[in-house]
Amino acid sequence: MKIICDWENCKKIGSYKAPIERDNSKKFKLLCLEHIKIFNKKWNYFANMSNEEIEFFIKSDLTWHKPTKSFNSSENFFNILWNNALEDKLNIFKTSGYKNFKKTKLTSTDLDALDIMGLKHEAKWEEIQKKFKYLVKKYHPDKNSGSKKFEDKLKKITLAYSQLKMTIGKK
Ligand SMILES: [Zn+2]
User: Fold this and answer.
1) Residue 33 C-alpha to ligand 1 middle, in angstroms?
2) Does some domain include residue 28?
3) CA neighbor of 85 nearest in space, from 148, 4, 158
4) Is 12 helix (H, G, I), strand (E, B) or coil?
């Protein structure tokens, strides 16, 4: 029995797995080659964004401050990134306070954040940005079969990066 590609209006054979949710590695849909490529491009969402855009995206009110989208919920974390990435909700940058990041002094939280990202406490902002991009790719669910462990790691890294952006990050 052949399975048809899950993409809308596509009649080709679906032979490539595409995860549906970040927290259920067994749940996937099957896509044809053409559509798995498009799907994977969406997963590379972050690759096409500047570091500031990534950080803003993560911190955005529009991303998090909805009733079902609590920043405090690790359960929601990846679903939100996933869903927003799939929906290409990049227009949030035009509608809110993207340019108004505030900077404060380095705190113990910042040092913890550097530790989480595996960086030295003297790390420069350029190094942090570089490391963040590297880590996001490394713990990308595509590469880890939606593993809970890596997902949690990615969440911590992202929060750490957001923290550092506020204090170390410079334009
Ligand atoms: Zn298809």
Assistant:
1) 7
2) no
3) 158
4) coil
Is residue 26 domain-resident? Answer: no
49's tokens: 């964004």
Query: What element of type H or E holds 28?
Result: strand 28-31
CA of 20 to the centre of ligand 1 (A): 16
Q: Look at residue 81 and tell me if it is in a domain.
A: yes
Distance 144 CA to ligand 1 centre (A): 23
As for how many domains the chain has, the answer is 1
Over residues 81-138, the pLDDT tens digits come to: 655 555 544 455 554 455 443 333 567 788 888 988 999 888 888 899 999 989 888 8
Q: Is residue 11 part of a domain?
A: no
> pLDDT by residue (tens digit) across 12-64?
999 988 876 544 456 788 989 988 887 776 666 665 566 666 666 666 555 54
Global confidence as pTM:
0.39
